[in-house]
Amino acid sequence: MRIHPLIDSSADLAALCSRLAKSPYVAVDTEFMRENSYWPELCLIQIADEHEAAAIDPMAPGIDLKPLLDLMVDNEEVLKVFHAGGQDIEIVHNLTGKTPHPLFDTQVAAMAIGQGDQIGYSNLVDTWLGITLDKGARFTDWARRPLDKRQIDYAIGDVTHLVKIFPRILDKLKKLGRGAWLDEEMDRLADPANYENQPDDAWLRLKLPSRKADALGRLKVLAAWREREAQAKNLPRGRIVKDETLVDLAGSPPAAQADLGRVRGLSQAWSGNDIGGRLMKALAAAVPLPADEMPGREERRPGVGKDGALVADLLKLLLKIRAKEIAVAPRLLARTDELEQLACGQREGLSILDGWRGEQFGRDALALVEGRMAFAVRNGKLRMTRTEEERA
Hints:
Elements: E1 2-3, H1 10-20, E2 25-33, E3 41-48, E4 52-56, H2 66-73, E5 79-82, H3 86-96, E6 103-105, H4 106-112, H5 121-129, H6 149-176, H7 183-190, H8 213-233, H9 237-240, H10 243-251, H11 274-284, H12 306-326, H13 330-333, H14 336-343, H15 355-369, E7 373-378, E8 381-386, H16 388-391
Parallel strand pairs: 1-4, 2-5, 5-6
Antiparallel strand pairs: 2-3, 3-4, 7-8
């Protein structure tokens, strides 16, 4: 495989992308910094196919990333391969408003062939290639220039190894007949809605101060205000106002800006500065949360009582047994919240009752809940068996 020197010119990048556009798949990774910013700062992009690999410097003066971004989001002929690619995909979405497509995530694929719930990249490389990675550059400052050879070699290794591992994982998926299992997961990863930061939805990520419509209405406008402030200043949300302070303000709003100086988590300066004024303006615009926006009461666990919790525990046991039998990560097969919903009588809208999940797990889970199957111990091993009633 040809390893290119660091690409820092538009012409070299365009030529690389032109060649890669003819490949059936490319491995992609990014290095970024986000500790001190709202938006992740893209510092390096690595890409490889079977024949060549390169690291691209997106911080190089005047470099035009359009050929690379077009390859990511507009070329449907090239499969983009990531490992645990959520944050890489987020960066592409921030730059283009689109997500890489089609895509393949080897961490998710590893779950489908029984290699753990969230296998790390180092373990993946060790398992498939027998190579122990040097982790020395893992926590480097990728924004600092110039990058040294060790940093670049480390970064390129993330894609040169991945481009070799991907076809092997794909081959095993095909042999096991599990390729279709990943379709739903890859569609979810590629859904742009997962990477959109809508200010008006920011309140849903916070701990609710109460179920009072007026407090929740204030929380909604305050969270949206903070989100816009953080985006405009490119600062982490917590640098604007911490979550707990935002919740306190929603539950006990100050009567005037002068009172902000006495709020825990805010400095005295807020009682007279511009940002304090914008906060008070947001509060003044708050209205009680409409009834149709009120969060449900424990929507994800309807009616879970002692009996429901016991049934859910039995379903979790069944999940462990079935996951071991078919060599798949339990997390890919079923989520805990869906097991609890099934235990409490819900039947509609559960992915474990549909498609391959229904075939591999859901039908037996439903039979267990409805008393048509039971656990039995045979030869010292736990097994599932049909009940007398079901056999009759």
